[in-house]
């Protein structure tokens, strides 16, 4: 993973370099292309993962798995329609946990599971609110479009300060409790510094896309390939892609339908993030099961 982290750092700074050459509209276009490619793809193989996680595959038919998965997606979509502020809050917390879990799952091994989960949530939320704080006005508009709630701009910085305090406090606890934690804590601090530069210099979508693809989606795909096929190789990636292709295309079709219906309206951004949230809820549960099975 150290070699990949070096690649992710280089890719991030190349992205920042390109940021100075391309207009905001082009960054938006390329950012969405990245999200639609590896970003959506990394969650498109959930059903294959479920079948491998389940230890009683013979008793649980594929149609039943698909039914439960679709129900969670529909529930997420309905929640955004009925109680959008609650759905949005859940999406942010769940996404924070998901990002933190991906970043710390291999490094952080601790017997107190709730401390590990809390640390992953705080770390992931810290990344999100770094992004939010640097683009508070844009994020405020997206939240307003989704939930009709106007969040004061000062709140983003306030939450960020609280998360930094919690992160440092839990880190201090782990630093003196787990010997191995000392080996990579300062490396993770450096990564946070890289993320801060990335989010500060980039636009909202471009910064999110660079983090989401190079620091989350691709590492997640590599973990999933190892889980499904034993080793992360290009040949196994082709098998992974073939398995995920149909669900990836269906997800893209849903997004493009939303775009062609609402492309002239500001509500599209809200609908886009709502759609991402709906498919994120079941994905996070599947990845959590996968990591649990690996242990």
Stretches where pLDDT falls below 50 for ≥5 residues? none
What portion of the residues fall into strands of 2 or more residues? Answer: under 5%
DSSP summary, beta strand count: 0
Structural class assignment? mainly alpha
Query: Which range best describes the helical content: under 10%, 10-25%, 25-40%, 40-55%, 55-70% or over 70%?
Result: over 70%
Terminal CA distance: 18 Å
Average of the residue pLDDT scores:
82
Order of helices and strands: HHHHHHHHHHHH
Jot down its keywords:
single chain; 295 residues; mainly alpha
Give an overview in words:
The protein has 295 residues and is mainly α. Helix content is 84%, strand content 0%. It is globular.
Question: Could you give a short description of this structure?
Answer:
The chain has 295 residues and is mostly helical. The chain is 84% helix and 0% strand. α2 packs parallel to α10.
Outline the fold blueprint.
Blueprint: H1 2-19, H2 24-41, H3 46-53, H4 62-82, H5 84-104, H6 113-134, H7 136-147, H8 153-177, H9 181-201, H10 204-229, H11 234-262, H12 267-294
Helix pairs in contact: 1-9, 1-10, 2-10, 3-12, 4-5, 4-12, 5-6, 5-12, 6-8, 6-9, 7-12, 9-10, 11-12
């Amino acid at each position: 993973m150290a070699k990949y982290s070096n690649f992710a750092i280089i890719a991030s700074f190349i992205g920042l370099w390109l940021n100075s050459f391309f207009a905001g509209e082009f960054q938006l276009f390329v950012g969405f292309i990245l999200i639609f490619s590896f970003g959506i793809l990394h969650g498109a193989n959930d059903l294959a993962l479920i079948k491998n996680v389940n230890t009683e595959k013979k008793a649980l038919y594929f149609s039943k798995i698909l039914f439960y998965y679709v129900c969670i997606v529909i529930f997420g979509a309905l929640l955004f329609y009925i109680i959008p502020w609650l759905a949005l809050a859940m999406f942010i917390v769940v996404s924070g946990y998901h990002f933190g879990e991906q970043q710390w799952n291999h490094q952080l091994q601790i017997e107190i599971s709730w401390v590990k989960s809390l640390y992953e949530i705080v770390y992931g939320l810290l990344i999100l609110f770094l992004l939010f704080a640097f683009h508070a006005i844009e994020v405020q508009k997206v939240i307003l479009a989704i939930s009709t709630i106007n969040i004061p701009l000062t709140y983003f910085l306030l939450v960020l300060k609280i998360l930094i305090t919690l992160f440092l406090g839990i880190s201090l606890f782990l630093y003196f409790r787990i010997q191995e934690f000392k080996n990579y804590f300062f490396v993770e601090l450096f990564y946070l510094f890289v993320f801060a530069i990335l989010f500060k210099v980039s636009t909202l979508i471009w910064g999110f896309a660079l983090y989401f693809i190079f620091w989350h989606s691709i590492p997640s795909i590599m973990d999933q390939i190892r889980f499904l096929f034993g080793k992360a190789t290009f040949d196994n990636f082709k098998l992974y892609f073939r398995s995920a292709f149909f669900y990836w295309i269906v997800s893209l079709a849903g997004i493009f339908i939303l775009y062609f219906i609402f492309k002239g309206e500001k509500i599209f951004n809200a609908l886009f993030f709502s759609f991402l949230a709906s498919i994120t809820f079941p994905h996070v549960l599947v990845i959590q099961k996968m990591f649990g099975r690996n242990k």
